[in-house]
Amino acid sequence: MSPPVWSTGDRRSGGQADQGNVVAITEESRYQLFQRAEQVLGEDEAATLMELLPPVGRADVATKRDLDHQRVALSSDIEHQRVALSADIEHQRVALSADIDAMGAAVRSELHDQGVALRSEIHTLGTELRSEIHTLGTELRSEMGELRGELRGEMSEMRGEMRAMSGDLRAEMYREQRNHTLAMIGANTAIAALVVAALQIL
Questions:
Q1: pLDDT of 145-178, one tens digit each?
Q2: What residues does each domain of the chain span?
Q3: Cβ-proximal residues to 40 (8 Å cutoff; 6+ apart), any chain
Q4: In sequence order, what DSSP letters do the residues of 7-32 get, joined into one string?
Q5: Which pTM value belongs to this model?
Q6: Buried b (16+ CB within 10 A) or exposed e, 26-42
């Protein structure tokens, strides 16, 4: 079977390099590649593979000068990207620092406002508490004064009752003593009468 025909552009014979700078790929080398691919992959697969290869001509071969040029261009692109990335990072750092400073200022301001509000609430609470304590003290003193008045009144009543009871007790004791004295006088009188009567008999 004859191999497929591929466009090779500027062919070179014998597979020789051009002045040491260009490596030539000939139709023969491509045919040898097709044969090897046909042995390994099969005819249809080898043909498909060769169709996928780009055509090779003098204009398609990269020289050392082209590689150097690409290397310089690539280095320039990399340096440009590095500079741009560094600038972007610095810009982001500055922006982030500004955001952090602004956030810190906002937090400090909010903390200050919260502190002022808290101190005001504590002051108000202390004033209300002192007022309540004063009111409770006044009410307690008033209740204690009323209680002292009631206790004095009750103690006065108790003293009056005790005086009355003491008077009644003294009167009762006086009556008992008088009755006892009269009884003793009566008994002594009766004894004396008996003694007199006995003496008269004798």
A1: 889 888 988 888 888 888 888 888 888 888 888 8
A2: 1-61
A3: 46
A4: --SS--STT-EETTTEE---HHHHHH
A5: 0.34
A6: beeebeebbeebbeeee
